[in-house]
Design goal:
The strands form two sheets. The chain has a three-stranded antiparallel β-sheet with strand order 1-3-2. It has a two-stranded antiparallel ribbon with strand order 4-5. It is 31% helix and 21% strand. By secondary structure, the chain is α+β, with helices and mostly antiparallel strands. Strand 4 and strand 5 form a beta hairpin. The longest helix has 8 residues. The protein has one domain.
Length: 77
């Protein structure tokens, strides 16, 4: 069964994805890497769509665009 599409706040998404803080997600949002997953409501609150229809899940997308290092995270070139 396919996972249910859920929209989480940036803080909730960071916890769900295993990040220690929200800053890495905000960096990716500001650089435009998460535009396909980003939702902004009428009050300006930002949400990330975890399992969008027609695209891979956010959890599967992030490892494809970033390189994990022991000291920090770098974007793949």
């Amino acid at each position: 069964m396919k996972p249910v599409n859920v929209k989480l706040t940036i803080s909730e998404a960071a916890k769900e994805l295993g990040y220690a803080s929200r800053s890495q997600l905000y960096n990716l949002i500001n650089k435009g890497y998460l535009n396909n997953y980003l939702w902004i409501d009428d009050k300006g609150r930002k949400y990330l769509e975890m399992n969008p229809v027609g695209r891979r899940s956010l959890k599967g997308y992030l490892p494809a665009i970033i390189k994990w290092r022991s000291d920090c995270v770098h974007l793949k070139s």
